[in-house]
């Protein structure tokens, strides 16, 4: 162990230091503990781990980290929907929820936990209670024509959750959606990576940005936290009426693929 230097440890940790920083930090701590034990047991004379702090960049605070989820390019989504989600199979919960998440730009967990009491068919609104939101604030989502069509089909079945698991007594698992995307090779903007459900939110934002949609309406649709006081004043209303138009435009685009 006396032959192991700080540079050797740096060489091992550097490949994962930026991408999996929390794991790398824990590994470094574990290595340090092993050396402390070895010194106490007289297997070696020094611990090289502290010196790695001069060789590896300081850990990035969590608030400063930006995680980029693999996302399908927005121009490719209509074809993906036509070929893999609207393929004529009458009842397939996984297909319906994947399409519903894309249509609504919600987080997949919000859709998986969706219950019928949250749906207002008359006013075409899905209201997600604060306790189910990441922001801990009530979020209203306008229901487009296609979203209502999906809900009307699923309403025929007597289940607590709108998108139930095969057992019908609990919500569908996140892995079911991930497996679906992998099975159908949902490509992304990151080479070699399959698109993620969360990535479709980025796709929606890119579509808004590149098609001249109001950025604040887009942020409200995504239920993002308000960043400054000017936006906060604007966000006193959730812009629901305006978002009806925005989300129907998005829905129309998603259904625009026609086989040549």
UniProtKB/TrEMBL annotation:
Domain Core-binding (CB): 1-39
One Pfam family from the record: Phage_int_M
The entry's keywords: DNA integration, DNA recombination, DNA-binding
Biological process annotations from GO: DNA integration; DNA recombination
A GO molecular-function annotation: DNA binding
CDD domains according to UniProt: INT_P4_C
SUPFAM superfamilies: DNA breaking-rejoining enzymes
Ranges where the Tyr recombinase domain occurs: 67-247
Superkingdom field: Bacteria
Family listed: Belongs to the 'phage' integrase family.
Protein name stated in the entry: Putative prophage integrase
Species, as recorded: Neisseria zoodegmatis
Lineage, opening ranks: Bacteria, Pseudomonadati, Pseudomonadota, Betaproteobacteria, Neisseriales
